């Protein structure tokens, strides 16, 4: 039997990038690099290889195993606040409609509608299911009589990480497990 890693396409062999303290460089999005970037960083001596895939690539002179986990040699100070992205916004709201608690058909609602001057910011966008979004229409929660479950705030990375424990990403290579916090709970 071949190890599944041996026949894995190199493009399916991203490297998990750790900071110099061996914590992931970023959780949301999870810091992963394509294999080409990882190999280049190895040759530039910017990262240490922590774990490898079985999959090898050949250069004219050598065969090397693709790195699956790498650690930066220089510590990079992480930012306290995550990026304002669709995924992070859903994660802040725990993938639940902030008006009725539904967990499907999710959309984004401008709390103060754009027509009333509402902006697209952490503080003015909430997760809403399509029916609630439609029902609320161009009104504020007060005008619509639809109070929010939680106040819309700009979350810290720490807060998102707490929510993220419940929503691990789809692709996790076996060698990443030691470096990601959610694994402990997955196996519990
Ligand atoms: Zn709803």
Query: What percent strand?
Result: 15-25%
SSE-based structural type? alpha+beta
Number of extended strands: 6
Q: Please, what is the average pLDDT? A: 87
Shape descriptor reads: elongated
Keywords:
188 residues, alpha+beta, 4-stranded mixed β-sheet, two-stranded antiparallel ribbon, 7 helices, 6 strands, elongated, disordered C terminus, binds zinc ion
Short description:
The protein has 188 residues and is α+β, with helices and mostly antiparallel strands. It has helices at residues 4-7, 35-43, 86-92, 130-136, 141-144, 157-164, 183-187; strands at 15-18, 32-33, 47-58, 63-72, 106-110, 125-129.
3D architecture notes:
- The structure is a single chain.
- The protein has 188 residues and is an alpha+beta fold.
- Helix content is 23%, strand content 20%.
- It is built from 7 helices and 6 strands, in the order αββαββαββαααα.
- It has helices at residues 4-7, 35-43, 86-92, 130-136, 141-144, 157-164, 183-187; strands spanning 15-18, 32-33, 47-58, 63-72, 106-110, 125-129.
- The strands form 2 sheets. A 4-stranded mixed sheet has the order 2-1-4-3. The chain has a two-stranded antiparallel ribbon with strand order 5-6.
- The longest helix has 9 residues, at 35-43.
- The model is unreliable at 182-188 (pLDDT under 50).
- It binds zinc ion.
- Zinc ion is lined by residues 97, 99-100, 102, 128-129, 131-132.
């Amino acid at each position: 039997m071949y190890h599944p890693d041996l026949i894995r396409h190199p493009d399916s062999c991203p490297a998990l990038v750790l900071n110099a303290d061996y914590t992931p460089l970023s959780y949301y999005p999870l810091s992963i690099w394509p294999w080409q970037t990882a190999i280049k960083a190895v040759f530039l001596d910017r990262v240490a290889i922590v774990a490898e895939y079985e999959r090898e690539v050949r250069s004219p002179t050598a065969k090397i195993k693709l790195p699956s986990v790498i650690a930066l040699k220089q510590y990079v100070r992480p930012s306290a606040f995550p990026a304002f992205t669709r995924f992070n916004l859903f994660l802040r709201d725990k993938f639940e409609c902030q008006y009725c608690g539904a967990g499907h058909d999710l959309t984004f609602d401008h709390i103060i509608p754009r027509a009333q001057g509402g902006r697209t910011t952490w503080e003015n966008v909430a997760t809403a299911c399509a029916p609630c979004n439609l029902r609320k229409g161009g009104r504020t929660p007060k005008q619509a009589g639809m109070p929010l479950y939680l106040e819309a705030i700009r979350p810290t990375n720490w807060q998102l990480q707490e929510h993220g424990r419940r929503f691990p990403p789809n692709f996790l290579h076996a060698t990443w497990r030691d470096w990601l916090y959610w694994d402990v709970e997955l196996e519990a």
